[in-house]
Every structure is written in structure tokens, then in C-alpha cells.
Write the C-alpha cells for this entry.
Amino acid sequence: MTDTIEPQPVAPKDAQWDVLIPVRDLIDKHPDLALTIRETVTQYVRDAEYPALIPVQITDDGETYAGVRCPWCGIDVENSEHLDVLDENDRSTTISADEFDHDHRTVSPDYDDRGQFDGLCYVCTGCDRPVSLPTAWTER
Ligand SMILES: [Zn+2]
């Protein structure tokens, strides 16, 4: 493992608006489809494959410790507590550093009310981009 990564290329800053124009036009022409479009987009966001977080060994001031870096911006989401789980209702739960288990390759988010939490994706809050858990890691 290393403490350096190649950040993922990102879309131009205003590209998000170009992507949304046909969606907005479709809803303007067919408002009856608005809820179907919303549900479909939610499903696509849930099913999409996002760049995986990268487990690393970080050396800082002569001390080496485990971390997990964002593939988009390179921030250590584990030790800076910049990894959230986002649910369908725009609620987020931050995964704290002690909820990462490198030996068992798991994260264990502490949901306030797990029964009501409908997970959508993981988000690096350092850059507000979706990510997936590191390869072979799971949530428990
Ligand atoms: Zn990031």
C-alpha cells in the first residue's frame, strides 16, 4: 500500500447543468412522468458503480497509520471523518474513524435508526462525490 494515489478525472464544473436540461424538458412536457423519473434516477444512483476508496498506509511526522483515501480528491476520509452514507431521504450518517476495520475489511456505520435508513450511496464529504467501499470491503 502507498499513501499516494492518482485522483479520478472529474467532469467540467458546469457539465451537471447540461446533463439536467433534457430531464427538465421532459418533466416540463410530461409532468405526469415526474415521479417515475425521480424513482428511476434514484434507482440508477443506487445501482451505479463508483470509484472505490483506496486503503493506504500514511506516513506523517515519522508515524505510520492506516487510512482510506478518496479516489476523486485524495483526502483521507477515514481519519478526517469525511465519509458519509447517504440515504433516499437525503439523510446522511458519517462513518467515524473507529468504524473502519482494516483487519476484517469492513465499515460499521452507527445509524441512529437503521430500520428507517434506506442507503443510497457513500459520499466523500471532502469533495461531495459518490464513492464505493474499497475492493473486497463490506458494510456490516
Ligand atoms: Zn473526495
